[in-house]
Amino acid sequence: MTITKTQESEKITLSLHGRLDTSTSPQLQDTLLPAFEEAQQIELDLANLAYVSSAGLRVLLMGQKTANAKSASLTISNVPEDVMEVFDMTGFSNMLNIVDSK
To answer: Residue 101 in 3-state DSSP?
Structure first.
């Protein structure tokens, strides 16, 4: 998986490319959680995410809990249909702030 980070004042966008699974979820965790020290608004752009596993879901949940604890915002955008199905089946679509899903 490749993570591209862009920052505009108080907003950081992390664009994910590839698969978010057991082997790549630590990479997202190591990028996402420290981002809350740099900005109050974090966006995860999933337009190029092909797959998410339970390990990836765990990191997304950790991100949401970190955002809540720091009174910050975590937004998930451009969710592919296959990934959205996983979010719906697991109930994550109700826990995450999802906008602009495909």
So the answer is: coil
